[in-house]
From TrEMBL:
Organism: Cohnella yongneupensis
Lineage, uppermost ranks: Bacteria, Bacillati, Bacillota, Bacilli, Bacillales
Origin superkingdom: Bacteria
Name the record gives this protein: Gmad2 immunoglobulin-like domain-containing protein
Annotated Copper amine oxidase-like N-terminal domain residues: 44-99
InterPro entries tied to this protein: Cu_amine_oxidase-like_N (IPR012854), Gmad2_Ig-like_dom (IPR018911), Mao_N_sf (IPR036582)
SUPFAM superfamilies named in the record: Copper amine oxidase, domain N
Length: 198
């Protein structure tokens, strides 16, 4: 009887150990990946991704960009659902936006542009610049009616002198704000104003 009892206890202990081992192995063993910072740009529909704090990374020839940044470039919202424990991406790609700027619309041509949208920026100070692919042609700050977390509408009337319009290239508007922590540019959103060809 003692032999049967000992055998049964040993069998149960062995089964419990066999069931626990895969679970322990799954929680202990994690794969490590070595990523390098990419030395090439990412553009989506002519919009360049740039964020020094969340850089573009490369792993074995594949490019990795923060998911929210890709959503911003595509005009999609990227949210973490704590209840469902998953990332949810929604959008049709028809608008360009990020955490600080949304509903951006551009009209005009030949150096005269009107840009409208909404900003949600710290202390209601939004910043913008226009560049020709090589140099900044102007950089300005604008005081909005309300600061974050509220969305505040804005309208920019941008004039680029004829002598600064590129004969071949794209004038890009860069919307951003300066970090209250360290003064770096954050929430950068690049929007094409006009493309010129010879």
């Amino acid at each position: 009887m003692n032999n049967i009892k000992g055998f049964t206890i040993g069998l149960l202990a062995g089964c419990a150990l066999m069931l626990a081992m895969p679970t322990m192995a799954a929680t202990v063993k994690k794969k490590t990946y070595t990523l390098t910072e990419a030395d090439y740009p990412i553009e989506v529909n002519g919009l360049k991704y740039a964020n020094a704090q969340l850089p573009i990374l490369n792993y074995k020839g594949s490019t990795y960009v923060p998911l929210r940044a890709v959503g911003d470039l595509l005009g999609a919202s990227v949210e973490w659902s704590a209840a469902l424990k998953k990332v949810e991406i929604r959008g049709d790609g028809s608008s360009v936006q990020n955490n600080a700027y949304r509903n951006i619309k551009v009209s005009g041509q030949g150096g005269h542009y009107t840009v409208t949208g909404e900003g949600r920026v710290f202390e209601a100070v939004m910043s913008y610049a226009v560049e020709d692919g090589h140099n900044y042609l102007l950089e300005q700050n604008v005081q909005l009616d309300e600061g974050a977390p509220a969305w505040s509408p804005f309208q920019l009337n941008i004039v680029i002198p004829a002598k600064h319009i590129p004969s071949n290239g794209t004038l890009m508007l860069e919307l951003f704000e300066y970090s209250a922590k360290d003064g770096t540019k954050i929430n950068i959103l690049s929007v094409p104003l006009e493309t010129f060809a010879p």
